[in-house]
User: Which sequence fits this backbone?
């Protein structure tokens, strides 16, 4: 087998990055915070989105934030079915691809209609490798690490953690039953990304959901304070 090295003299992802930046600006102008949720399969992305929707929809004081979800999956619409009772949701089926790309997200947003709410979430395909390399125009990238996965994962999948703004440590209720140190996971992740916000929570009993929602609302306020947001 002979191998040939071809040098590509141009940045083939440059156009994609420009398109993602344009999409991000459009979301900023709308005042919608776009959040890209990344994790391994089963870390609890869908459960967290359902808990987030419950938290905001039962708020007693002030305005209830509006949210919608674009959910990616390899093959089924099971997550969309789980979320549909709570929030507007559009399923993106990748047909086997291990990550989402921007054109699919843009089409899904069109299918959602004229969404002008405060928070738009993208649930990425469960995978800690490929989604890390694809800018979907998000303002915030959030990585979930569940306590059942082990506290050594940040160092093993550094790009996903390096490119994230926040790390949710999910399934906090299982800490007494599994060998997982929140401190070790935090230290490992912050060695890669020192500015990472760390949010431990449990989507089933609601522990930490208020801090998570406060974090999102604070990030949206920062977005609105930007000069380009009218
Ligand atoms: N014990 C526990 N289980 C959870 C929690 N969050 C999610 N799960 C369970 O973990 C499994 C995977 O969750 P899911 O939301 O589908 O993960 P996703 O693949 O990242 O969307 C489901 O059986 C959930 O009920 C949690 O906080 N604690
Ligand atoms: Mg899911």
Assistant:
């Amino acid at each position: 087998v002979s191998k040939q090295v071809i040098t590509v003299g141009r940045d083939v992802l440059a156009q994609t990055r420009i398109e993602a930046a344009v999409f991000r600006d459009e979301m900023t102008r709308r005042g919608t915070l776009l959040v890209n949720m990344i994790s391994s399969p089963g870390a609890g992305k869908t459960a967290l989105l359902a808990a987030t929707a419950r938290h905001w929809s039962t708020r007693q004081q002030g305005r209830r934030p509006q949210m919608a979800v674009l959910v990616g999956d390899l093959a089924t619409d099971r997550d969309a079915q789980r979320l549909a009772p709570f929030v507007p949701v559009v399923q993106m089926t990748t047909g086997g691809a291990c990550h989402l790309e921007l054109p699919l997200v843009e089409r899904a947003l069109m299918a959602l209609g004229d969404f002008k709410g405060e928070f738009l979430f993208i649930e990425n395909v469960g995978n800690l490798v490929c989604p890390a390399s694809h800018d979907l125009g998000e303002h915030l990238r959030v990585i979930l690490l569940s306590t059942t996965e082990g506290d050594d994962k940040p160092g093993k999948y550094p790009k996903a953690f390096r490119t994230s703004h926040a790390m949710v440590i999910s399934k906090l209720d299982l800490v007494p039953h599994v060998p997982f140190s929140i401190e070790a996971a935090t230290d490992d992740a912050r060695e890669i990304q020192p500015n990472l916000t760390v949010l431990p929570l449990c989507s089933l009993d609601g522990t930490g959901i208020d801090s998570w929602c406060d974090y999102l609302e604070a990030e949206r306020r920062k977005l609105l304070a930007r000069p380009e947001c009218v």
Remarks:
- The chain has eight helices and seven strands.
